[in-house]
Model the fold of this input.
Amino acid sequence: MKYKSIIGLEIHTQLKTKTKAFCNCKVEFGQKPNTNICPVCMGHPGSLPVVNEKMIEYALLLGRATNSKINDKTKFDRKNYFYPDIPKNYQITQYDYPICYDGNIKILLEDNNMKDIGITRIHMEEDTGKVFHDKDDNNSLIDYNRAGVPLLEIVTEPDLRTPSEAYKFLNELKSILRYLDISDANMEKGELRVDVNVSVMKKEDEEFGTKVELKNMNSFKAVKKALEYEIDRQIELIKKGKKEKIKQETRMWLEDKEKTKIMRTKEEAADYRYFPEPDIPAFHINNDIIEKIENIDFELPLQKRQRFSKEYNLSDYDSSILTSEIDLAHYFEKVLEKFDDGKAAANWIINELLNLMNEDGKEIKEIDVTPQKLASILKLIDQDKISGKIGKKLLKEVYNSGKKPEDIVDEKGWSQVSDSDELENIIKEVLEENNDAVERYKNGEDKLFGFFMGQIMKKTKGKANPKKTNQLLRKLLKNQ
Amino acid sequence: MMKISDVKDRIDKEGIVPIVRSVIKNIKENDVYNSFLELNEKNAIKQAEKLSDEGNNDKPLYGVPVAVKDNIAVKNMKMTCGSKILQDYISPYNATVIEKLKKAGAIIIGKTNMDEFAMGTSNEHSAFGPVKNPLNKEYVPGGSSGGSAASVAGNLVPVSLGSDTGGSVRQPAAFTGTYGLKPTYGRVSRYGLTAFASSLDQIGPITNSMDDLVSLYSVITGKDKKDSTTVDMHLDDLNKLKNNDKKYKIGIFKSMLDDDINIKIKEDYYKILKNLQKKGHKLVELDFDKKDYIVPIYQIIAPAEASSNLARFDGIRYGTRKEGTRSKEELVSKTRNLGFGEEVKRRCLVGTFVLSSGYAEKYYKKALIARKMIKKELESKFDSVDIIATPTTPNLPFKIGEKVENILYMYKSDLFTIPANLSGLPALSIPLYKTGDFYTSVQLMGNSFKEIDLFKLGYEVEKITGGKK
Done:
């Protein structure tokens, strides 16, 4: 590939504070429109903003998790623009003194190397309301419940080189936000929003290409797809010698058409007329709050991943899946309280349980297979009471019914046949029924061993203990 | 002269409800100045009855009728800010000063006329007609708190609240011969005060005497958790203000008293200084070479903040909306075009301009730096003096309509009052002597949170002039 792409992200994520950023209105979603509002977040004349300290704490927490520096003295600014969803027609945000700056987040690349992605800044601001154009024939309607909800804006350095790196970064960030429990960060639900800056240049070039901004993606996958499309588009233009057609502009991702479309040019960009918010004096981040943040005990996804790999002897891939969601990581460790083979537990969670969950879109917190129940299933397998194959069936049963694994095994008679005499009888039966095959086996067709195993399993409905059956079958074939 | 003590005497004799009724009746019959926009008749009487039932007349402002500038929120009353865009707007909550007044037993009697969104120095920029000066009805009462000043000068109420961004309490006080105070920035909560220029605005009292000024002041001050710019500062003991024996060093800016100042104002200013000197106070001449920057700095910073503060008036959530528009852009621009008056538009345009990219560096940011310099220099003056005395205004009241086209004249008339806003310092305007129908005035500016010095010296000035009769 002769080209490289330079990608930077701008992420907005809603904070899970109890109240809004600058007033006492509740932060809760799915309420009746315009019920969580007050004179302050509706911008009534005379009302004044008062900073929610939780928002500052959450910002500092993310700052700590991303190794960011803290601006000892920080302030709020006004970003002025007219839009009906923004009650004051300015947004309270942070302009030149963001609370955190100069941090980084590590992502795990395909080649198992880590890469540092720089965080330029993290700042606090308020969310807007929501405009609906389709709820009423003659009017646009606005719900201001979301207006004033605290957001963190996270801006990365242009350190990302591929759409897949961007995708990994977003997943890592989401998992950090959820580990810290400061944001649910669900992009599909609009709790997290991503704008992308991307430019393309020839590998040998020194000068960056023209930067294009992409908006309107509503999932991490869409971010990846939009980037792939946009990078291709830019490369094609360069190849055709039409580099000048790449303009500094904002393009909109059209999900259904899977392409980007121009939204506005640089000349149309708004002049936000930033100036210091006079209603909130500049303030120092005092030592009390710094200390409070430093005393909060947490393990980040990366740390947990490294610990899992080491402590439970897992591959980096397995660890990274298990630690992608804090609830999943907790689940895994809970299983290990009752069952000590980490590798087996990891395999079962990743290959079986997560598949079941994916099929019906459930999260780990919502399922009926408690860690105790999964541990029971794993023990049954480990103690040869059931086969691995039955184990899968059993897991599905438990997943669907929520019943105890032991009860299901009893009920269905799934206990494994491990008794040597019983097994010998079954094997003998199978060999007698397949005389031809036995002859051919003796004449050197080794692969027929598998055929006999299959027949035995068929006869026992999969309940024959594979290890024992294997041993006995070998012995009996020798004696034939 | 209507003073709190008179009202209290009458309440003692007749009871609180009849007094409130008679005050309202008097306003209805005798407000020929257009000073009130709305009376709080029903609620005022209800409030009086409630107070009367409680029978607790220890409250500091028990039964005292207060007029409130119409940019301060009183729950369930209109708050027009003197603008068409808010002509039917009803405030959904009480300003902190209103809560404090009510707690102190004061009766909110009504809302007073003002220059639209507090932008103006003559009260001719009200959407509801100009206010007339009670001292001579052909003349302006000053602005922007012209209605509040006229209601007190016209003896309709003993005290009122105004707001002061560049002199909007002190200048109308001077024009109407009343007392007006702009407290230190952060001393009085702005919660509920419709912002003009948030970093300059402060609510202040307008009264007919020093006593009343101090009474009202002590009720409305204090840290408010709803206003992050208020400061938790000790409130000095205000009981021992009279009979001051402290000898002050009073700073004067000779360089600011050039030929542009009305001769009578200058004469009376020197006269009062001489009298104070005779009482043992010391006059100290101070250098001040930044006079020419004061008005320009103000005319950049105030409109810049205003352009942002007034952006919320778009007709979407509340206020008057232009109906029948076809897009959000058209709705907002037509609503604002129709709802705002000339002066407000002018300042919003200036403010938008000075904050625009490419111009912010040249104007707004320079003005911020210059403001800091002025603040620093003024504060440093208090190393050598206790109080700085200037005239309140460079000119006496003018006739209604006479100067309305002369924008620069209007802007320049804030020369003496603006520095206190730029630097956050407290400043008090006191009427001196009668000249024709009007009064000359002196402004005393003190160090940060040193209102007490202004009061002590203010009482002495009042004693020298004999006060208002």
About this structure: The longest helix of chain B spans residues 291-309. Chain B touches chain A through 45 residues (CB under 8 Å).
